């Protein structure tokens, strides 16, 4: 299976909360449940903080240049002249306050929710600071637009200084950092002045460590709950649209995202951008809308959630979870999760492919004994997508491969 994104094994622990019936990221260093198996070991070796800004008071805590707040969003106001790829734009920016996770972080994964119309773009950059006061350069992560032929969405080329480097959608620290910032710049055509808006931006800061011999999580309230998520096979799209990755084994991420959007009744079509007669055309359309024109693939984590946010109307972000017990909280709340795994031969019993160094699938529920019900898009047909995976095996190949990375898409 061709990878969506190839990454080294890592592990991190998140903080999550149930807020008003919806699961949203919150600020604060993680701590394991003191009663959970292996909690002391994990608490000592791994941590994560998810911080995001999405309300007027949040935006006012940062630095605004050429932007204003309205109804909880960032909009351009008295923008300055700017250029992007040699084209004239109007631009304004917002820079977050310094976020302090309370530990030495080794990775940052930003994600955002934005609206771009016409010739408009948002550009995301991050920087970080060490405990001894050294500050990295601003490293640009992405230029993102929903559908702008003038500036195609793309991750930015690798930038490296003595404190960190960009790896597609992840900023990797060369030495642990204790503070970080994110900056978003809004661009719009100076001639047509289309709408461009930012509704949320944030990042997951992680301290990563090997999973080691931590025991499998104990099943909780999600046992016996299965969500009615539609099944789409990526394999039935083999050879579709080479300009967006070519379908088939390359489309695990957009197929998974399309299944979650379908669960919410979104993307019913029609799809004028897709050739008439394509079955499950929403998969092809999703691939087009998440394709990273620099990376050359559809597996950019933040591009998937950014696209989903334009349809879902709720929260859509990239995070990491401690284990499958935390995933159960989402399922109980009615939220399926897209998770990032990798596995070798005989590591995931019942998988439709023998191995993968990067694969996305949807956690849709749990059997009564805690085993995991998934929609694995690598199934050869839609009818072969629904699977049940051993809890211990799936937890291992998820946490070891991506540190428990998940797309949260909540309407």
Give a brief outline of the structure.
The chain is an alpha+beta fold.
Lay out the secondary structure.
Elements: E1 16-19, E2 22-25, H1 39-45, E3 47-53, H2 56-60, E4 63-65, E5 67-70, E6 73-76, E7 80-84, E8 87-95, E9 105-116, E10 120-129, E11 139-144, E12 154-155, E13 164-167, E14 170-177, E15 179-189, E16 196-207, H3 252-263, H4 281-290, H5 301-312, E17 315-320, H6 324-332, E18 337-343, E19 356-366, E20 372-375, E21 386-389, H7 391-402, E22 405-410
3D architecture notes:
The chain has helices spanning 39-45, 56-60, 252-263, 281-290, 301-312, 324-332, 391-402, and strands spanning 16-19, 22-25, 47-53, 63-65, 67-70, 73-76, 80-84, 87-95, 105-116, 120-129, 139-144, 154-155, 164-167, 170-177, 179-189, 196-207, 315-320, 337-343, 356-366, 372-375, 386-389, 405-410. 16% of the residues lie in helices and 35% in strands. Helix 3 (252-263) packs across helix 4 (281-290) and helix 3 (252-263) packs parallel to helix 5 (301-312). The model is unreliable at 1-44 (pLDDT under 50). It starts with 15 loop residues before the first strand and ends with a strand. The protein is globular and about 55 Å long. It has two domains: 48-207, Jelly Rolls; 215-410, Cathepsin B, Chain A. 55% of the residues are buried. The chain is α+β, with helices and mostly antiparallel strands. It has seven helices and 22 strands.
């Amino acid at each position: 299976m061709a990878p969506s994104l190839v990454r080294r094994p890592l592990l991190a622990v998140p903080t999550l909360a149930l807020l008003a019936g919806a699961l949203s990221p919150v600020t604060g260093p993680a701590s394991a449940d003191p009663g959970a198996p292996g909690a002391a070991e994990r608490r000592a070796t791994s941590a994560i903080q998810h911080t995001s800004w999405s309300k007027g008071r949040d935006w006012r805590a940062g630095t605004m240049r050429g932007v204003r707040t309205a109804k909880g969003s960032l909009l351009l106001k008295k923008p300055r002249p700017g250029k992007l790829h040699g084209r004239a734009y109007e631009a304004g920016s917002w820079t977050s306050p310094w976020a302090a996770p309370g530990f030495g972080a080794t990775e940052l994964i930003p994600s955002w929710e934005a609206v771009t119309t016409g010739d408009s773009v948002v550009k995301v950059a991050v920087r970080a600071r060490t405990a001894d006061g050294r500050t990295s350069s601003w490293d640009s992560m992405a230029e993102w637009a929903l559908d702008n032929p003038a500036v195609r969405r793309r991750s930015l080329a690798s930038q490296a200084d003595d404190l960190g480097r960009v790896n597609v959608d992840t900023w990797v620290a060369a030495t642990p950092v204790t503070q970080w910032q994110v900056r978003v710049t809004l661009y719009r055509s100076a001639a047509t002045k289309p709408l461009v808006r930012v509704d949320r931006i944030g990042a997951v800061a992680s301290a990563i460590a090997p999973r080691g011999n931590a025991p499998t999580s104990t099943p909780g309230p999600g046992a016996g709950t299965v969500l009615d998520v539609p099944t789409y096979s990526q394999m039935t799209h083999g050879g579709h649209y080479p300009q967006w990755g070519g379908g088939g084994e390359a489309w695990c991420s957009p197929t998974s995202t399309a299944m979650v959007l379908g669960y919410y009744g979104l993307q019913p079509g029609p799809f004028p951008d897709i050739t008439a007669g394509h079955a499950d055309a929403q998969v092809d359309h999703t691939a087009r809308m998440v394709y990273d024109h620099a990376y050359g693939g559809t597996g950019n984590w933040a591009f998937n959630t950014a696209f989903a946010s334009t349809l879902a109307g709720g929260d859509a972000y990239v995070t990491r979870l401690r284990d499958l017990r935390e995933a159960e909280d989402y399922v109980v709340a009615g939220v399926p999760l897209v998770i990032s795994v990798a596995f070798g031969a005989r590591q995931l019993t019942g998988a439709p492919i023998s191995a993968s160094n990067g694969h996305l699938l949807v956690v849709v529920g749990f059997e009564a004994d805690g085993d995991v019900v998934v929609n694995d898009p690598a199934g050869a047909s839609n009818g072969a997508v629904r699977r049940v995976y051993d809890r211990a095996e799936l937890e291992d190949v998820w946490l070891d491969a991506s540190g428990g990375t998940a797309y949260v898409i909540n309407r």
